[in-house]
Amino acid sequence: MTTMTIDSVKMMRGLRAELSSEMEHMTARERLRYIQDKAVSIPLGRMLAEQGGEAAQQANAADRLPAGH
């Protein structure tokens, strides 16, 4: 069996540097959109986005008054 060692701190720093470089000249709104687009490009991100949308709909429905009130 082969074992693999992952330096998670080094990986995180590399990813952070890459994202910072890619978003360097973006506005805050562009950065938010970029991050959202990146997130939903992977299966876990899509699943969380769908669940988040469902949770928001449920919260909105709970905040509404019943008809006639």
List keywords for this structure.
single chain; mainly alpha; 69 residues
Question: How would you concisely characterize the structure shown here?
Answer:
This protein has helices spanning 8-23, 28-39, 43-63. The chain has 69 residues and is mainly alpha-helical.
Mean pLDDT across all residues, rounded?
A: 83
Whole-number radius of gyration? 19 Å
Shape: flat
Please give the share of residues in helix: over 70%
For the report, how would you describe the main beta sheet?
none
Distance between the termini: 67 Å
SSE pattern: HHH
Question: Beta-strand percentage?
Answer: under 5%
Low-confidence stretches: none
- The overall strand count is 0
What count of helical segments does DSSP give? 3
User: Based on helices, strands and strand pairing, what is the structural class?
Assistant: mainly alpha
Report on this model:
This protein has 69 residues and is mainly alpha-helical. The chain is built from three helices and no strands. It has helices spanning 8-23, 28-39, 43-63. The mean pLDDT is 83.
Topology:
Elements: H1 8-23, H2 28-39, H3 43-63
